[in-house]
Amino acid sequence: MAEHDVHALLLTTEPEVRYFTGFLTRFWESPTRPWFVIVPLAGDPIAVIPSIGAHLMGQTWVSDIRTWQSPNYNDDGVSLLADTLKEIVPAQGSVGLADQIESHLRMPLVDLRKLESALGNRKISSDHGITARLRLVKSEAEIDKITTAAGIADRSFDRVPEIVSAGVPLSQVFRDFQRLALEEGADWVPYLAGGAGQGGYGDVISPATDIPLQKGDVLMLDTGLVHDGYFCDFDRNYSIGPPSAGVRQAHHKLIEATQAGFEAARPGATMSDLFHAMNGIANPDAVGSDGGRLGHHLGMQLTEGPSIIPQDHTLLVPGMVLTLEPGVSLPESKIMVHEEDIVITEEGARYLSTPQGTDIRVIG
Amino acid sequence: MAEHDVHALLLTTEPEVRYFTGFLTRFWESPTRPWFVIVPLAGDPIAVIPSIGAHLMGQTWVSDIRTWQSPNYNDDGVSLLADTLKEIVPAQGSVGLADQIESHLRMPLVDLRKLESALGNRKISSDHGITARLRLVKSEAEIDKITTAAGIADRSFDRVPEIVSAGVPLSQVFRDFQRLALEEGADWVPYLAGGAGQGGYGDVISPATDIPLQKGDVLMLDTGLVHDGYFCDFDRNYSIGPPSAGVRQAHHKLIEATQAGFEAARPGATMSDLFHAMNGIANPDAVGSDGGRLGHHLGMQLTEGPSIIPQDHTLLVPGMVLTLEPGVSLPESKIMVHEEDIVITEEGARYLSTPQGTDIRVIG
């Protein structure tokens, strides 16, 4: 912060606020109220939040908690926030706000303009990616939580044969999978996507349809479930009945590509290196899939930057947690995607999810 | 739009995009990629989206779909968006962006600045709340979906005695309740909060702790579950063992307050009227609870504006769907909150959730 002449960070989003305070609630699902935390250049964080959150914030390590009754149509915390910032940011000083890729501002734009005006000769600048950089390398405690989440997903994926057979609608599979994840210990299941189709699926972000599974379908389930505020994010592919030669080969290729990514993943390698290691096997004739990337970091969010793309030259260091997510194209515009979660260690990398064998799982 | 000299709306958030296009995916859980939809003053919407979403967007009614491979660190869709806007917005014209209460911008601030610069003599202005106003009055199809969601929650709440008894940790109750909701037909359960404590709870937004329930606890579960993209949002209170006189009276008061709100809810009444009808019973000596409001609209989001606060003079009209959510204070800084979902009809209002009797539900 000092290097960048930032006198305070202003946080507005769930992961930023939680990272510095430990404030964990699903209440962010309600878009009504803005929440603010200020991290001064020196001293402890200050929470400037709606009064509805005072009791819960009071249970974190934050002791300076300032509240207003929100929603307030005339002044939804802006004056209180401006006054607080004026206390800790000197005249001509600057307040750093996340403004780079993967960020957004969780307050109405009209309130940002009011805040700028109320701050007078103090100005709002970029946070220069400080919070994102801090969050990029995980602590042992964070890695433990992600590992637990991955274990829950592993066990849930192992139980998929209990809930899947030809004739079951995909929407029922999605409901039942979330149930399995809860039974296996997930706190909640913020993300489940997937697809099913003969010899592959059309995309990896669709919600379920009511179409029944049939023999010859490839079913993919991709989950981001949460344990103690931390995500895992990986998928599994299943063949309903014996797989075609094309599907079998595609799965082999995906696992080989993932393993190549895993072997390339070590301190000093770059995200770009991981891309080329995987893409050279999964997709040697083209520059990646429609997804545009073959993996990403994760932790307090389902996906965190940076991304495994050719243009990303971020150096890997121990403690980074990321997904390896190669995809292959199949006939008739179908695709298949595989995903595992890994952590970078001093020696290389370690799988957090249980790495899959080259043979696709077969049900029925 | 014409009244406000807005030549195109620029949409960046999940509910805005879905409202106009039907694009339904849980992939918004990933913050990496921005998504844009342009609604021109005349003509059909145009989607400007990452290529990973092209297949799914292609299944909606939108036919003009322009994609880029995201993430792109140099230009994450900004040029494509600017070029598209320049096609449909005349020079000196303006692009309307949601900037009022309950809104946020789902793209990095640095990209907004780049977009403004690329647009040159076209300017980005407020959307004047146009999308929010459109979304405020629900269609019959939307009301049906919310009604179905509420029915699922009703049945789940009725099954709570299956999963609750003294000695069960609250975290297990939370997991099991989500499982019940899925069994009863929820597509997913984006929101579950609640609390438990002797004679009341401390707040209504906390996640679960591992503390076991005990005799004399009041357990509250508040869920926002989703059916076909639409939320319900209501809670239920349970006494573990016989309730104290204070708890029994508090629940009576909450139900009476809710019913008073229901009776006041008719076309021509205001949100403020609902506040006073409920608060006069629940909290006659003070101006509302810490939550600052006694209900809100809902639909594609868990909470939507406007809010039931004294300052809100929005007139109710048929098709509005809202929650009635009075709260009462109890000794030792405890509270209790009750919530039901209603729709405004020509004649008055109709409950979408099953209204509760005055006696608190007792388990064990």
How would a crystallographer describe the biggest sheet of chain A? 6 strands, mixed
Number of domains of chain A: 2
- Largest binding interface between chains: A-B, 77 and 77 residues
How many strand segments of chain A?
A: 18
In oligomeric terms, what are we looking at? Answer: homodimer
Gap from first CA to last CA of chain A: 58 Å
Structural category of chain A is: alpha+beta
Shape of chain A: elongated
Going by CATH, the architecture of the largest domain in chain A would be: Alpha-Beta Complex
CATH topology of the largest domain in chain A: Creatine Amidinohydrolase
Residue windows where pLDDT falls under 50 for at least 5 positions of chain A: none
Report the radius of gyration of chain A as a whole number of Å: 23 Å
What is the count of helical runs of chain A? 9
Please describe what this structure looks like.
Two copies of one chain form a homodimer. Chain A is built from nine helices and 18 strands. In chain A, the strands form five sheets. In chain A, strands 4-3-2-1-5-6 form a six-stranded mixed β-sheet. In chain A, strands 7, 8, 9, 10 and 18 form a five-stranded mixed β-sheet that branches. Chain A is of the alpha+beta class and 364 residues long. The longest helix of chain A has 20 residues. Chain A has two domains: 128 residues, Creatine Amidinohydrolase, Chain A, domain 1 (3-Layer(aba) Sandwich), CATH 3.40.350; 227 residues, Alpha-Beta Complex (Creatine Amidinohydrolase), CATH 3.90.230.10. The model of chain A has no long low-confidence stretch (mean pLDDT 96). In chain A, β8 and β9 form a beta hairpin. In chain A, α3 packs across α4.
